[in-house]
Amino acid sequence: MSNADAYRVRREPFYQAQDNEVAHYEAAYAARLPVMLKGPTGCGKSRFVEYMAWKLGKPLITVACNEDMTAADLVGRFLLDASGTHWQDGPLTLAARLGAICYLDEIVEARQDTLVVIHPLTDHRRTLPLDKKGEQVEAHADFQLVISYNPGYQSLMKDLKQSTKQRFTAFQFDYPEAALEVGIICQETAVDRNISEKLVEIAQAGRRLKGHGLDEGISTRLVVNAAALIGQGVAPADACRMAMVRPITDDADVIDTLDHAISAVF
Ligand code: ADP
């Protein structure tokens, strides 16, 4: 198995399109434009990239960004072992060499000084300088950079600079509309349509509390989790509390409001 094969998405991931994002992504890929996926957590951004990597037949290398991540974590570093030092490519360098789609998930978590390493890869240069190694990596023709970020978490400290933003094409994601979300839940889990509709109804009630006690709505991921618990025999109302309410808030009033919404439905 070649290196690139190790990163191939083998089975078609289930992805429910919300609009014409699949065709638009294909156009962005054909033009090798970097892509930014914006939207709340758990609304299908990562699943979309996986699906597109599968559809385009390209390897996918995913990096979950965090504030402790350094440029070396992305680019690579010299490692010391019994036989001396050797260079180890980081995930970004590996993706550039292999011609993979490199997906930097939750990019705003990374520090600004870390992020500048992506700049030369996202303009006409399509190169990655490995300063420590004294090498300039020319990105493979198939390489593409994709980042995700959640504008909801945005603060002045944690926002992308314009100089970074203005290198990307962007897709705006949101929770799927009710009928599509019901279909996603049925496809992802074994629950029947009737239960799925009720779960989505509760999720939508929760989303209306965003900005009124909730920082973020109840995501599709949490609805899938509730459905999975129901599939394991947990009573629906308990599953909703456990998967869709308790994880997202500690506010007693909001918990009370959501618990009432659940009791009204189940
Ligand atoms: P994020 O936006 O945080 O990257 P994910 O892509 O991981 O979210 O989505 C979370 C879960 O929600 C997925 O694992 C999948 O079960 C479900 N999901 C959300 N949107 C879709 C969609 N459009 N098609 C298929 N599954 C979806």
UniProtKB/TrEMBL annotation:
Highest taxon in the source lineage: Bacteria
Stated name of the protein: AAA family ATPase
Domain CbbQ/NirQ/NorQ C-terminal: 181-265
InterPro entries: ATPase_dyneun-rel_AAA, CbbQ/NirQ/NorQ/GpvN, CbbQ_C, P-loop_NTPase
Gene Ontology molecular function terms on file: ATP binding; ATP hydrolysis activity
Keyword set, alphabetical order: ATP-binding, Nucleotide-binding
Pfam families: AAA_5, CbbQ_C
Residues in ATPase dynein-related AAA domain copies: 34-168
Tagged with keyword Nucleotide-binding: yes
ATP-binding in keyword set: yes
Family according to the record: Belongs to the CbbQ/NirQ/NorQ/GpvN family.
